[in-house]
Amino acid sequence: MVAQRHISTYCRRRVSLTLCFSVLFVHLSVFAEPVTFSHAWQQLAQVSDQLQAKAQLVNRAKAEEDAGDALNYPSLNIAGSYTRLEKPIELDLRDLNPLATLDTSTLPAALSSALAEIPGSLFVTPFTEQDVFRASLQAMWPIYTGGKITAAQGIHAAQVSEREQEFALARRELFLQLVDRYYAVSVTKTLVDTQKQLVDSLTLHVSHAQKLEQQGQIAKVERLNAQVALENAKVNWGKTKRQYEMTEIALARMLHIPSVEPISALFLLEQQPSLPYLSQLTLTQHPALKLLEAKEAQANGLVDLEKGSYYPTVYLYGNYTLYEDDSLFSQVEPDWMVGVGMSIPLISRDGRSGKVQAAKSALLQARYTKAQTKQDLSLLIDQSYRQMLQAKEEADALDVSLALATENLRLRELSFNQGLSTSIDRIDAELSLTAVKTQQLGAKYRYMQAYAKVMAISGQVEEFINRTQFQGAANAG
To answer: Which residues form a coiled coil (predicted)?
Structure first.
């Protein structure tokens, strides 16, 4: 509201509209949107193009599975044709017995002359026209295919499961990326504040040093040491501000919002989750294992599909004539027919035995890969868990160092003001305190990364999110 009043006052002056909007954008960009980790995760799940692409792969696999159900149904189609013959199909009765073998010389003269007077066209019977038009309704229904249809449908179902597990893996990877970027903003912002405190403290120290130099209580070199430390602190402060800006931009771009301010703080759990329980969850529910199970199911289906090439195919078929010409052949041909057909493969050129062997090799590959993945996941959860414990121990151990550095700075400050210690001693104490704060902040950040990784591997992403909300409520209380 304060910013809006300033902008309104500025825009009421006689300035250009473009400049007014530029000022408005600058003012509004300063105010970042406070976002909890839970809200950031919900936002990312909605706007992530990567997840949307994986979701479409799942939809595609489901559509292909639905299409595979149609293999159980009969096919029905309309067939039409136009054929032009070299000449119409005709039958000459004189080419048939007994006329074909009749010797007219043995016949009585009257009968022989009578036959000779009959035109040849009377002996010819046309069966078709030279232009033949036909249209028919054809149906075919496979009732036994050697298990090929069932195998194909099983492969489609396994492909759906594979795509779903790929989506789950992408979701977990995106979660870990969000943890890194979200808490990196918090860490760099705290570093900016820490460096700012160092700059403020050294600025005050330089002011005191200048006064003491003027009073002749310290040498010029003492004051110069303080000024050099101050300038170095300002440089480091500027570097941390740039780092903070970069991490904030990365998070904002990830969430598709102009600016963001993380408000979920870093935390350390007093009671760590059980490693055996985490390992059990990982080895029974991890999407990578389920994905390989889906590949194994596909390989099994492929074996059955290739074996089906050795079995006969039995089908029902039917034909109904919709349109035909008025030829004799059309009158003799029935209007409809139904029947049962069978096809038995004897010798094939498609290498059926080789395909069956290849499918079996794919099945063994999936099983071996699954066994290796189990070992890798077991090692990964153990390593990540120990990294989490190590970070927790470092953060806890630095509590004592932080107390020591704070007390040391207080004593060095008193000693310097009383002329009992040098400026270097006082600056070293200040830098030591800043270093301890930075180390502890880094240890907490590594703990958050390791804890998030452990939760993601074991499939407890929601547990991590609930923990961030609980810690936020506890801090607010």
So the answer is: none
Q: Give the whole-angstrom CA distance, residue 210 versus residue 226.
A: 9
How high is the pLDDT of residue 25? Answer: 36
pTM over 0.85: no
51 and 136 together in one domain: no
Residue 420 falls within a domain, yes or no?
yes
pLDDT over 70 (residue 156): yes
How many folded domains does the chain comprise? 2
Closest to 254 in 3D by CA, of 177, 340, 168: 177
Which candidate, 196, 402, 163, 395, places its Cα nearest to that of 287? 163
Task: Please state, as a whole number, how many other Cβ atoms lie within 10 Å of the Cβ of residue 396.
Answer: 12
In whole angstroms, what is the distance from residue 304 CA to residue 154 CA? 10
Phi, psi of 327 (to 5 degrees): -75, 165
Encoding tokens for residue 293? 């199970």
CATH number for the domain that contains residue 418:
1.20.1600.10
What span, in angstroms and rounded, lies between the C-alpha atoms of 132 and 86?
11
For residue 109, which amino acid is it? A
CA distances from 179 to 11, 86, 461 (A): 41, 79, 11
Q: Is 260 buried (19+), middle (13-18) or exposed (0-12) by CB count in 10 A? A: buried
Q: Which residues pair with 144 in a beta bridge?
A: 314
Verify that 42 and 63 share a domain, yes or no: yes
Measured distance CA(397)–CA(324) in Å, rounded: 96
Is 429 found in the same domain as 333? no
Q: How far apart are CA 51 and CA 47, in angstroms?
A: 8
Strand 336-343 to 313-324 pairing: antiparallel
- pLDDT value of position 413: 80
Range of the domain at 394: 30-70+150-302+352-476
87 and 204 housed in the same domain: no
Residues with Cβ < 8 Å from 456, sequence gap 6 or more?
172, 175, 176, 464
Q: Same structural domain for residues 141 and 162?
A: no
Q: Nearest 5 degrees, angle CA 294-CA 296-CA 302?
A: 105
- Considering the domain architecture, whether residues 251 and 376 belong to the same structural domain is answered as yes
**Residue 12 pLDDT > 60:** no
